[in-house]
Amino acid sequence: MRNIKVKEVMTPINEYLTIREDHTLYNIFSLLGNETNNGETLHRDLIVVDESGDFKGKITMIDLFRALEPKYKFLEYLSSDGTLTKKYVQDAVKAHDLWLEPITDLCARGRGVKVSEVMHIPSQAEFVHENDSMEIALHQYVMGSHQPLIVKNDIKVTGILRFVDLFTLIKTHMLACDLAS
User: Fold this and answer.
1) Is 38 within a domain?
2) 133 and 98 Cβ atoms separated by less than 8 Å
């Protein structure tokens, strides 16, 4: 892992789905799931760019769901002992009437909420340098980064490192092991 650079595994930024800050959640749903490679949907997240195409943030599926149900922001996501139990989730859903509105209300909300209102602006801990080793990226994921990791060089964002990319790398090396020794 130390000898493999992030830039060898990442998805280049120009191959990623992008959306502008002034678009809406409806625009996001119209983009996601449409691009396929041999029947496989490529990306589940979007990169937010400004008018000149420069990186501004990202939007994951979790960000979308939280935006469509604004009451999530009033919840603490972990129970008092640090776990997320089924009872805790059921109690929170009931107490806050989560997803109670009809689907037609979601459609109206999706047309009215701008990408800039819900996009995630990554912290420094969510960036990885393209010349860093995959070992560093693995540590960042395991220790709790809001995925995907944003890859940059010294000047700008150059790619995205998805968790599935890291898993695929580990799986490939694991299955290439000689079990006879």
Assistant:
1) yes
2) no
Domain of residue 47 covers 6-175
- Work out the percent of the chain whose per-residue pLDDT is above 90: 24
User: Contact at 8 Å (CB) between 165 and 138?
Assistant: no
Among 62-66, 77-81, 124-128, which stretch is predicted with the lowest mean pLDDT? 77-81
The more confidently predicted of residues 33 and 61 is 61
Global confidence as pTM: 0.74
CATH number, position 22: 3.10.580.10
Given a cut of 70, whether residue 139 has pLDDT beyond it is: yes
- Which residue in this structure is represented by tokens 């990554």? 122
Q: How many domains does the chain have?
A: 1
Report residue 173 as tokens: 């090396």
Tokens coding 1: 């892992």
> Taking a C-beta distance cutoff of 8 angstroms, is the pair 107, 68 a contact?
no
CA distance 123 to 145: 9
Distance CA 123, CA 16 (A): 20
Question: Closest Cα to residue 127, out of 28, 55, 24, 41?
Answer: 55
Residues 6+ positions from 180 with CB-CB distance below 8 Å:
none
